[in-house]
Amino acid sequence: MIGKEILDKYQMTVGIECHVQLATNTKLFSGADNDERDKSPNTVVSPIDFGLPGMLPVLNRGAVDLAIKAGKALNSPIEHISRFDRKHYFYPDLPKGYQTTQMYQPIIGPGEIDIPMDDGESFKVRINHAHMEEDAGKLTHHGNYSLVDLNRAGTPLLEIVTEPDIHSSAQAKAFVIELYRLMTYAGVTRGDLYHGNMRFDVNTSAALKSSNELGIRSEVKNLNSFRSVERAIEFEFYRQVELLEKGEIIVQETRGWDESKQRTTSQRNKEDSQDYRYMPDADIPPIVLSNEEIELIQSSVPQLPPFYRESWKILNLDSTVINALIASQSTAQLIQRILEKSGTATAARRVAIWLLMAVEGQTDDSGIVQNTGIHATDDHLIELSNMVEKNELSSTAAKEIFYEMNRRPAVAPRDIAIEKNLIQVSDETEIFNIVDSVLDDPAFKKAVMDLENGNEKVIGFLVGQVMKKSQGKANPALVQKLIKERLKI
User: Fold this and answer.
1) Are 263 and 232 spatial neighbours (Cβ–Cβ below 8 Å)?
2) Of the candidates 206, 433, 441, 469, which lies 20 to 30 Å from 160 by C-alpha distance?
3) In terms of residue numbers, what domain contains 60?
4) What is the DSSP annotation of 428-467?
5) What CATH number corresponds to the domain at position 480?
6) What is the pLDDT of residues 227-249, one digit of tens each?
7) DSSP H helices in 26-112
8) From CA 155, how far away is CA 30, in angstroms rounded?
9) What pTM value is reported for the model?
């Protein structure tokens, strides 16, 4: 069993390749449906996907546009000329005998993205490049035979390749989460991890911190959750350190992740580029783009997570709160609208806290928001905030009204407050009379004496009695002020 002291001798280095399924209606080179979810095997295919003789591919322009949008999210340049190549290898689920990809002239060049951590710190990950390619099909294994489903064959993918800039499993998890946000915010992918809309290949190596060279890497393929990325890297690092401590050599190989056993298993030796016999694809013309064309397409990309983090600095929210809110694009957009429409950070911060309550409990195991349940209008949320600001509502009452507004979005918050008898009384004369009655009540004589003798803790008890007598309508801050004035303390 290797302890922390030994693990600390080694440096973990991770590079990630992410396959992003582009949100097109049809496949990359055919007119077949690009959504294979809940479809019977081999039903969303065309002669092109089957690789029949004489079938010629036709590039999906929508996939190119989505790749251009992805480039903006990655802070990467779009190449004015990019080309497709053939990557030769035999898989039963790729009947052509080669994969159409971009080896030599990818559409997206080097970039860099800033990755936020929950502790408020951040680090940068360089993007080596991103290229377009088609997906293969799927094999289902049954004992001594396998079944081939080509529904996924030809699905348009964007493969994003990082530099080895990640040095912990926590950083890796933070990276894939931020990449998911960027790609879904930009509309590049539907982001359905369960159905493989984003899949991650992680390359992990271990080397002594005193060494100037990286260790030999292993690649764990086809991880489709943030948690599995984190755990696969942790397992691989530990496995490699254990081998190195025994004096053994790490083999460069491709490994798979066994979710049930929480371990990786060897699949095959890692091929090098020469093994694939890359060659230009003569059937597909080069993609030629102008600056004007690129700018026009990228102008439709909505605001991305870094914009909201910068804009919300004036809200003074904890980084974990901001990341939780940004997990839902619609929630982020709503808070930004409140900030701009109200013109005050106070209203936006208050609404953000209410929205956080709605987001909590609405995430899956990966931290992805499934359903925010926000139906209240911008104007009603601002009105609710204003009522709290004017001391017309307590914070507890405001939360109750917020939930009711989401259930009945057409009803104004003031109408709900009146209906539920939640309007807070801030009239000093009315509250002073209630304060008087409580302080003069013999049942509370000891508490009054304790307060007069300097025991300020009992003021909360007296405030509670006033609130009870006012049926919760009195403004607690005003009640405390009037008690102190009456007792001259």
Assistant:
1) no
2) 206
3) 4-295
4) HHHHHHHHHHHHT-GGGHHHHHHHHTT-GGGHHHHHHHHH
5) 1.10.10.410
6) 999 999 999 999 999 999 999 99
7) 47-50, 61-73
8) 9
9) 0.88
